[in-house]
Specification:
single chain, 213 residues, mainly beta, UDP N-Acetylglucosamine Acyltransferase, domain 1, eight-stranded mixed beta sheet, six-stranded parallel beta sheet, 3 helices, globular
């Protein structure tokens, strides 16, 4: 069990990790873990590089909590991100909310969730483990968002939308109320989703249609 007084260790060293670390206002950051050195030993937001993903157990044993700063680097769902989250099943993940985000007290945020700058999460919304609601995105009332889902910058989910695990809803996409989106789905940037989408597809366009590629 992590010690509430221990500094947070950020997982990742890219742009998403820096945004997340900047939002950890009031929580000391010990540093970050990343697969390989990027040519620098530290960044102002992330602190020093403490090791690789293999060092998680060491820092967990010392009582450090972790923040998931690994973004979606490929589609669907960033396979490495999903794999790492599985490996971290017994590790305490902190939920990070940017100070400018609006989150209803009636929303439920899973461990490791990140709510970005200017994002809105409304009453009755339920977000799974390590979900991302990125900058300016809107998750309306009564939405159900699975584990390891990324709602991209400026995307909007209307009321009671359901999104399965490991799904990416791209930048500026819009989803009609009550729509169900499956797991391991990619919704393209700017797409308008008017109907349910099954697992494992890519949907693009206005209105969104399943891509043949």
């Amino acid at each position: 069990m992590a010690d509430a007084g221990m500094p947070v260790v950020v997982l990742g060293a890219g742009g998403h990790a820096r945004v997340l670390a900047e939002a950890l206002i009031g929580q000391p950051v010990a540093g970050h873990l990343s697969p390989a050195a990027d040519g620098s030993s530290a960044t102002p937001e992330l602190g020093p590089r403490l090791g690789t993903d293999a060092s998680v157990a060491e820092f967990a044993a010392a009582g450090h909590p972790f923040a998931v700063g690994i973004g979606f680097v490929d589609a669907p769902g960033s396979a490495r991100r999903a794999e790492l989250l599985s490996e971290l099943a017994d590790v305490e993940l902190v939920t990070v909310r940017h100070p400018s985000a609006i989150v209803s007290p009636g929303a439920l945020l899973g461990p490791g969730t990140f709510i970005g700058p200017g994002a809105v999460v409304n009453i009755g919304a339920r977000l799974g483990r390590a979900a991302i609601v990125n900058s300016g995105a809107v998750v309306e009332h009564d939405c159900a968002i699975g584990d390891n889902v990324h709602i991209g910058p400026g995307a909007t989910l209307s009321g009671a939308v359901q999104v399965g695990e490991n799904t990416l809803v791209g930048v500026g996409a819009a989803v009609r109320q009550g729509v169900r989106i499956g797991s391991d789905v990619v919704v393209g940037a700017g797409a308008v989703v008017l109907h349910d989408l099954p697992d494992g597809v890519t949907a693009v366009g206005v209105p969104a249609r399943v891509s043949a590629s």
